[in-house]
Structure formats: structure tokens, C-alpha cells
Amino acid sequence: MSDHSGTVTAPGSDAVKTQSPGGSSLEDLCINAVRVLSMDAVQKADSGHPGTPMALAPLAYLLWTRHLRYNPADPQWVNRDRFVLSAGHASMLLYSVLYLTGYDLSLDDLKQFRQWESKTPGHPEYDYTPGVETTTGPLGQGMGNAVGMAVAEAHMAATFNREQKIFDHFTWFIASDGDIMEGVSHESASFAGHLKLGRLIGFYDDNHITIEGDTALTFSDDSAARFTAYGWHVQNVPDINDLDAVEKAIENAKAETSRPSLIIVRSHIGYGSPHKLDTAEAHGSPLGAEEITLTKEALGYPSQEPFYVAPEALKYWRDAAAARAKAQKDWGKLYAKWKGANAGLAAELERRLRGDLPADWEAAIPVFTAKDGNVASRAASGIVINALAAKLPELMGGSADLASSTNTLMKGVPSFSSEDYAGRNFHFGIREHGMGSVMNGMALHGGIIPYGATFLIFSDYMRPPIRLASFMKRQVIYVFTHDSIGLGEDGPTHQPIEQLSALRAIPGITVIRPADASETAEAWRVALSHRDGPVALVLTRQKLSFVDRSQYGSAGGTARGAYVLADAKDGDPQVVLMSSGSEVSLILEAQKKLEAAGVRARAVSMPSHELFARQDEEYRDTVLPRGVRRISIEAAHPMSWYQWVGSDGVVLGIERFGSSAPAARLFTELGITVDRLVETATKLAGKK
Amino acid sequence: MSDHSGTVTAPGSDAVKTQSPGGSSLEDLCINAVRVLSMDAVQKADSGHPGTPMALAPLAYLLWTRHLRYNPADPQWVNRDRFVLSAGHASMLLYSVLYLTGYDLSLDDLKQFRQWESKTPGHPEYDYTPGVETTTGPLGQGMGNAVGMAVAEAHMAATFNREQKIFDHFTWFIASDGDIMEGVSHESASFAGHLKLGRLIGFYDDNHITIEGDTALTFSDDSAARFTAYGWHVQNVPDINDLDAVEKAIENAKAETSRPSLIIVRSHIGYGSPHKLDTAEAHGSPLGAEEITLTKEALGYPSQEPFYVAPEALKYWRDAAAARAKAQKDWGKLYAKWKGANAGLAAELERRLRGDLPADWEAAIPVFTAKDGNVASRAASGIVINALAAKLPELMGGSADLASSTNTLMKGVPSFSSEDYAGRNFHFGIREHGMGSVMNGMALHGGIIPYGATFLIFSDYMRPPIRLASFMKRQVIYVFTHDSIGLGEDGPTHQPIEQLSALRAIPGITVIRPADASETAEAWRVALSHRDGPVALVLTRQKLSFVDRSQYGSAGGTARGAYVLADAKDGDPQVVLMSSGSEVSLILEAQKKLEAAGVRARAVSMPSHELFARQDEEYRDTVLPRGVRRISIEAAHPMSWYQWVGSDGVVLGIERFGSSAPAARLFTELGITVDRLVETATKLAGKK
């Protein structure tokens, strides 16, 4: 593979002998401590993945004692190096190192590996264990997160660095065979290569083993050539236990700042284990007490006591961490100097890092009036983005090659590119999954509110990172347009049906489907204010009728998830009509017709099920009075509405795929019509 | 890029001048007919993508007049070449050619492009337009389908060819920049390269244009190097209008049968259009009447009349198609000879192609008894697969690197590999998305029932192909194991919550979550009998209590989606307890406790919402009697249950992410317990 490698330490070959596992130098003790803690913790939990931490221990040792800039006492230091264990199943590698370097993670915590509410869950969880930068486990996601963090670093550096480089950290990741095989690795690596993210350094743990056996069963890629094709700087290290070779490769990677680096390290799963070395068995099961004894013997480990770490090894790790932490002190001085020279900029940075929005940002949110006419919600969203662009420099994003269709371009703002990392318009390429995982990394880094756009149908391509944004409670904004059969002629492959329900089912997400331009502005207000989780804005391709708020309920109700738009004129409503988005105009029209026919109907706009569910019962009862029958209508699968409509109401939706035809025809053919609403409501009211 | 190319026709370079668009040879007329039909149809529909068909017309001309083996009169001929337009937005390319070659698609059909129920929807739809082999549009899927078709061809050839090669067709695809950027292209191309699928030939339409502008905005891959790294044979053709060069590349690709081939053809979007050539504008909008006039002039087209095709051009296309169709005649003779010599084999093949299962296949389905003890449904599924493996040679599949965890290996059956295409155990690699799209291709090919397995959580990685299997009504079986918090210590990143509801929301899919080994056997019976759509089997990691069917309802009820497992002893039930999968044991236990406490309860096993919804109302009412309050419990997001429980019942589920801990602890902490059921039911019954 050497022809693909910028700087190769030695030709890669399976034939290269690994060093004998035994050793009693201080270095061996330090490295073997990671192996021992990992296998002991997995054994105690009777569950987990010991083999990879054992294999990667030398790499972790080098990174945390010599290369990473971090401070265990301040895991939030903004210019720390970011480390992402994309191979999240190797969590004990990370936990071991976090303990050894002195993060707030004790030996007792390691002993509680994989137990209820312990600080050491099966896979690393962000905001839960100090020193864990992102939640990993679903393969490929961590690589994308790392790319996003490197994007964020590049942007923050380009924006805030002056004479002093207050942002200049590296982002590191370790990827497994699984990460490398997943499609999202293609999307994020291609994106990173294109952007020439020189401060991104990844390791590919090339251990030749997957769960089903040798990787040769299913994998023949020349990964070095593949990443070279993406524009990465690629090196091969034939033996991870050859510390000098690994060290040299890391130095090379740090020196190469014009391209991302991948270091392919040949490792041996279960290293040290006499019987499980290089076997799939070592991947996902405890080694067993007997094998652990033999392994400790083979490693020349000084004690058989579970979780034993030699005091001199612990001291070495802690001293090394203290030395690494000095970087923060030096940086602190640099930062003070920078702040002294750039007071306004510093105030701005500190605001962004706190996650505060500018005091008067809401004044910039546009107010839509009758003069604006009928506006598609995607277009209204574009107007809001542009109105806020100057006010909110932390807002940055783009689309998966649908800028003009999703109306997500900030006009007059430069594009983020390898020539201009200060740019804020992103061109994610036709890479929805990568976009999602990169946005997570950007949001995790701090200082940035990322948004990403595609058609709602393609939210299916990016569900894994949407789920992780929800789980990590990160502020990521999705702009999903072309949200129903209303997109028309592109047909069933592009018409979302089940996507709305499928998104609403994700715990922690907030989905908002505004009914007109005014609700769209309010949806953006919610999305930008909502710091602790992702918000999906679901927007139309087609124009929406302007709702005159002097006659109808205020769009401010959007923030409460549902509100009364129009009420029965004389007395309590006999029926409640509920809807979201483009179908709200149908319930308004139906309400009028029903009133004319003597049926007292209330029209409720319900742009967000999640926001409504978060209101107190009293408010909910005022919007949806108990005992009044309800009808919902949405041009989507009905599943998510049954909870709100109840069994004595009627849920109108679409339980089939769409069709290729002009939109108006589709609404008629698929029964999303005023007539059907009127007919259904009349029946319901009559029965009452 | 020449160093990556096996046989290069000329060095690729953007500087190469394209030929002048004008031309009046018969060849020009034939090629320009495709361009004209495409731009006219898009113009008439006022919607669509004219630019790519115009660019690719020369390639289509060469393929359909000189290379593809097909018969417009018999689009189902089993040994026809398969052609997949992965760039589905260029549908007018395909429709134009299908018309020109004489498929059952008229000029009037082309004029109805993108209209309600026309045969020419916005994107190609399988089983709707003759000659369309798969539904495409969502980018990257078609490439995966093509890989699956090539897999199927290789397998059918290895299984059925004798002295006569009755299977030896090629599979062709055309991919766009978008296909190539999508992650699924990495998964399927890596898989195809590993398998050395030499009869797979793809074209990468390298037009340098995406919706946002020049591909250079976001894309710097050396795609030739990338595909070479996957083990593909790669060629560059610098100008698609250089027919000799394209022809030579195709000949090379056909001759290279030990590797899949990719031909990178530099094309020019909107070719022929004076003002829209090479612009993003030509991609997704009609050219406009004026520009069409100018384009026809520039092309030297003999008429400005919309949809005009010169009679001599149409004759040339039809004659060429007739000549290509002779291949079927020759094949017919070959087949007759083969059949004469291999009567038993022929009967078997014809059975498989008809989609019939062997008459006595169901006798092989195992019956589980108390002696089998408590069995995880994944384990029961593995037993069923193995019991059926010999009986159903068309059943083939595997997992995304989780064979032992998902119990999907057929013991004693060879693996499908480049050394043995007759193998039936698949090693899909850590490529869930690719697995899904490859399975679709296998199912589309005919003769095969594919299954693919992964953890339920990773169904999120493959929703696009699941959706397409549903839309195309193809028999694809998903084996999704580790189906809830019951997987325990791997934690929230691996514990499905919203996945069940999200799958159930897909129109046309059948999701079955069996409660014990017996229901698992019945679920497989349903899955194998269900020819017109995908079935997802949702299975546990943990053991499930054996349900003694002599005391409880028969597992045969599985096929009806829901059935009474245990009924109130004295009189009508006061409350109905409903559940699926691992939580059915909870309702059985609760039912006993309630009976003991004097509450008459019915326990309903509801393994499949979709199957139950397909029953008549009468049956549904016998299972869920009207007026009796219902409680459902499932260790998953509750969304999909509200429809069945109604607003006067109670839905017990999980609306948060899981946690890393032993499974038993999780069920208790998250409230999926018998106690909660008993308490809730007692209240409900009391209120009544």
C-alpha cells in the first residue's frame, strides 16, 4: 500500500511479527494497566468488549501521555483536543484512560461497568462521563462527529483567532473495521478530504477481525487507497506495539496540516491473551477468569488482583496528564492577551460558548403580513434565516445539495470551504447521513448552532445521527422541506408518508410543522431558543394561504405546540378539527362551512405534538376540551395522531404510498380534502 | 487517473472538447430523439429533469442498440440483461428508450409524463412500467439493487447452469454524482468488489453538476481510485459523445468478467442546449419553450414539432431492438436443451421463478414443545431457518456481521463468496444499508427469497431500502434481533425504542414480534408465504417463557395478527391486556394475578398490527370486544398502540431512551412490569 501513503513508516504486512506480550518496563506497566482494567471490568460486568481495548492500549498510552492536550480537572476547556472513540464498543479503553489520567472517574466507577446509573455505561455517553466527547456505539457515527468537530475548530479559529491562536486544537478519532465499512464513513471522509481538515487525525484499527470472523470474509477494500482518493494523508503502521513507529506516524500526521490524516494501525484483538488473541471471541465476550489469569501471566503483570494498577504506573499516567494539562495554563495566558486586545470579540465568543443568544435577537425575526401573500413555509423559513443571519453569527448550516429547494442559503454570506473556514454556508453534498453526524460534531464542539436541510423523505437516510442528537440533547436544527404529497410530480419515492410519525417517535426530538409563514417564524424562534435537543422544522414545497392573525389565533401559540385558531361562534364546539402544516388551511375552510351548516366547530393548529405534550394538563384541556369529539387531518401516516384524537374521534391521513401527479390532484385522490372533513365532522357532531 | 484504470481509452480531462451538438446522420437522429422526447415530456409536464437524459442519450443509444439483451415483447424473460437507472430522476431517458425500442409504452404515455396514473411517473417505478426493473429515485439505492441482481445472477448461474449456461446475463447501471456520494454506494460497491461480480457493469455519469452548482463545491474524490480500491475494473471515457470510445469501454467491461466494472463517462448536462449546457438549471427544471426551440436547432433536429421522432430513427431503434431480442430465441433453444437434460432441475427452477414454495414445505416447520424449554425468539428463529434450509433452496441470506448474535447462519450450507456463488449463507459485512438495497435487487431478480439480519436498532440504517421493498411489494425478510431494552448492558445506543413504531408506520410492510418459540415458527410461516411485500421479524436477545399451547390459545393465531391467549374464566372480560413479544409473558402473569384478585381479564397476544388490521371487523371484534377497556404493554415507544387501545384505555410503553444495565433491572426501572399492569387493570376495571 506504500504507493498511497504520504509518509510510510514501514511496509504493511500481515507477516510482521508482533512483539512478545511480556514486559516489565514502566511503559509496559502503564500500557498493560489499560489492558488489565479493561478485561477485568468486562469480566466483572460479565458483558462487554475486552479485545479491542487490549489491542489499542499502546496507542492510547502514546496519545494521552504524549500528544493529546487535555486537562482532567477541566474537561470543558474550549481548546482541548477532542478525542472520539468511534469504535464505541471499546469503551473500556476510554474509561481506563480517563481513570488513569485522573478525570473524575474512580476505580469503583470502573468496577460498576455496565450497571444501572453507573458512570461507565456499555458505550461512551456524552455529558455523562467526564472526558467523553460524544456518544458512540452505532458504527460510523463517531467518525462523522469527529469531522464535525474539526469543522467547528476550523471555523472558530478562522473567526476568532487574531495574533493569538486561541483555537488550534486537534480532533482525533479511532475507527474500527465496522466504522470503515459503514456508508456514513464514505460521506464524512469524503467531506473532510474535500475541506482539507488538516487538524483531524484518525486511526483505523485494522485488526482483521469482525464478529463473524476474519474481515477477509466480506471485506477486500484497499482502505489506504480509498482514503487517499478522498484526499487524506494516509500512513500504515504494521504493528501497533511498535511504539516508535506509531509515534513517528503521529508526529507526521500532526505535521501535515493541509489534509486530514488516517493512520492505519495493524493491531491484534485480545492482545496478550494466549488463547483468544486474534479471534472473534475476544471481541464481544469476557475472556473468562482462567484466561485472564493466563493473560496477566503472559503480560508479565505484577499482580493477579482484579483491577490492580501498580502505583508507579498510576503515578506515571497522572504525571503525564499533569504535564499535558500545562497546555491549558499556557493557553490561558494566550487567551488573556487575546482578550485584552479584542474585548468585543471576546465578549462575543464567551456569549457563544455559554450558549446565550444576543439579547435582542428576537427583534430580527420577521413579521409576516397579508402583503407577503401566500408563502411556502420553506420560503418563509428562508426569509427568517436570512433575517437572522447577521444577528446570529453562530448560526451556520446548509443542505445536502438542495440549497435553492430548501431555501437555506444565507445570502451574501461566504461558503465554508477549504479556502475560507470563516464561511457559514455549508455545502454538505449529497450526503444526508454524513450531514447529520457532522452537525452533531459541530454542535458538540460548542460555539455553533448548526442547521442542515434536505427533503423530509431523506430524513430516512439520517435517522441514526438524529437519534443521537436527541439522546445527547444537542441543539441541531433540521430543515426538512417538501413535506408531503404536496411536492407533487416527483412522486412516491419523494413523497413522505411515514416520516412524520417516525420522527415524532424519537424520544427528545421536537418536530414542528408550521401552518403558514407566521408559524414558520415562530418555529424558528422555538428552534433557536431550544438549547437542549434537536428541532426538526417540517416545511412545504407548495405555497400556503396567509392566515390573518387579526381574525385568527396568534401564531405565538406555536411555542405551546397547539392552540385554537378559530372557535365556534355560538357556544361550545361540537367538534374539534386539528391539523398541522399545509392541512391547517383545510380545517379553517371546513370550520367555516360547518358553521354555515350549523355545526359548531373549533379549528386547532397543532404544529408540534412534542411541544403540546410538554404543556400542563390545564392548557391542554383548554385547547382540546374533554368530551368533545376530535378529527385530525394530516397528509401523512395517521399513526402519531391517535394519541390526541382518541377512539371516539376520527384520524384522517394517508396509509398508502403517494403517486406522481400534480399536487392538487393528489390531495383530492388521497382524500385530504375539505369535503371529507365536513362530511366526517357533520357525522360526528350528529352522533353526539 | 490513468494509473487506476485497467484499460483506459484516453486520459480524462475537463479540457477535452465535446463534439459539436449538431448532426444529421441516422445515428444523430436516433440519439437526438431521446433528447427531444425527454425535454419535450418535461416541458409538457412542466416538471422534471431534462438535463441528464440529454447528456446520456449517446450511452443509451449504444446500450440498447448494441449491447443489452432484451425483448420488448417479453420484459420478464428470465435471462434478460438487467438495467438499473440508479439516477432515477433521469426517468425520461429510460421512458424514451422503452418507447423507441418498442416496449408497451406509447408516445401518448410519454405525453402523460408525471400525470395521475400515467405509465410514466416522475421516477421509474417497478411493476408499473414495462421494462423498468426497479424503483429508483432515492439516490444510491439503484446501485445497491444492481449489485443484488448481479449477486442473484451469479447464484442462479452457479446453481442451475450445466452444460448449457441458461443464466449468463449482465446487470448494468447508470449512477449519478448523487449516487456516488451517498454512503450506500460505498457499502454496495465494496461488497460487489469483494465478491468479484464480473457481470456487473456500471456507468458513472460524471457531469460535474449537482443542484447547488459545480460538484467541485463539495466533492473532490478521485472516484476512479476509490472504485479501484474496492477491486473494480475502472475506465475513464473523457467524452460521452465519442461513441467509439464509449463502445470500446463497454467492450472492455464485458470482457472483464473477474471484477465489476465502472466506466466513468464525462458527460454534459443539458447537452445541445445553447444556454443551459453544463448548468445546474438544466438539472431539475424544464428548459422552457424558447430554449427547446433553440436546442432543436442546435441539434440540427428535423422538426420543431413536440415529441417528433423521424420515422427512419424510430425504425432503426425498433430494428435494433428486434435484433437484440433474437438473443431470447437462441436462449429458448438452449433452455429447451437444458431442460431436456435436466428435467428435475428445470421443474425446480420453474417452481422458484413462479414464486411457488415446495408443496410440503410447511411440514418442515418445527413444532416447539415444553421440552425445548425457554428459548429466545432469535434462537427459535435460527432453529426454524435451519429446519427449512434444505427444503427451501431459494431461501438465502445472512447478516450485517452478526450471524451468531442473530442466529441466521444455515449450518452446513456453504457461504456465498467469489469462490462459491452457489453458497447461500451471506456475509453482508457491517453494511446494513447496503444489505437492504442488495436484498431488494436479489428479490427483484427472481428465484430467490432473501433474508437479512441485524439488531433492530440498526433498522434505522436501512430504512430507505425497507421503504422501497414495501413500495415494490417484494418478498424480503428482515430478521431484527435484540429488540428492546431486553438486550441489557449494551445500553441506550443499542436499545430500540422508537424503531417498532417507525417500522409499523411504513405502508405495506408486515412487522411480526412473536411472543415465544411457537409464534416465531408461525411468523416464519407467514413471512415465507407472504409473496407481496417485506416482512420484518422482531426477535429477542433474551430467553422467553415457553407458552404451553394446551392451556393457551394456539400460536396459529399469529397469522391473524392478534388472538386470545387466555380468557377470563367466569364471564366476559372486564379488561383486555394486549402485548407482543417478550411482554406477552407479563400479561399472562398479570392475567392470573387479576383473576385471583377477582378481576376478569383477557390476555391477547398481538404479534402483528398489520396482519390484525387486514382481518375482517368481525374477527377483530371477537379478539378486542367493543366496550371493554384495553391495556397494552410493550417495551417500546407507545405510539403505534393508541390506535388499538383507544382513549379510554391505557398504553404502557417507554418514551425515553434506555440505559446500560442488566435487562431485568431495566424492565423494573422503566416500568415494564406485571405489577404496573395489575395496578392499571385493577383501576380500569374498577372504574367501569
User: Measured on Cα atoms, how large is the radius of gyration of chain A?
Assistant: 28 Å
Strand content of chain A: 5-15%
Low-confidence stretches of chain A: 1-18
Shape of chain A: elongated
CATH superfamily of the largest domain in chain A: Thiamin diphosphate (ThDP)-binding fold, Pyr/PP domains
Q: What class, by secondary structure content of chain A?
A: alpha/beta
Summarize it.
The structure is a homodimer of 688-residue chains. With 688 residues, chain A is α/β, with parallel strands linked by helices. The first copy, chain A, folds into three domains: 6-328, Thiamin diphosphate (ThDP)-binding fold, Pyr/PP domains (Rossmann fold, 3-Layer(aba) Sandwich); 361-544, Thiamin diphosphate (ThDP)-binding fold, Pyr/PP domains (Rossmann fold); 560-684, Rossmann fold.
Describe the structure.
Two copies of one chain form a homodimer. Chain A has three domains: 6-328, Rossmann fold, CATH 3.40.50.970; 361-544, Rossmann fold (3-Layer(aba) Sandwich), CATH 3.40.50; 560-684, Rossmann fold (3-Layer(aba) Sandwich), CATH 3.40.50.920. Chain A has 25 helices and 20 strands. In chain A, α7 crosses α16 (432-445) and α16 (432-445) runs parallel beside α17. The longest helix of chain A has 31 residues, at 311-341. At the A-B interface, α6, α7, α8, α15 and α17 of A face α6, α7, α8, α15 and α17 of B.
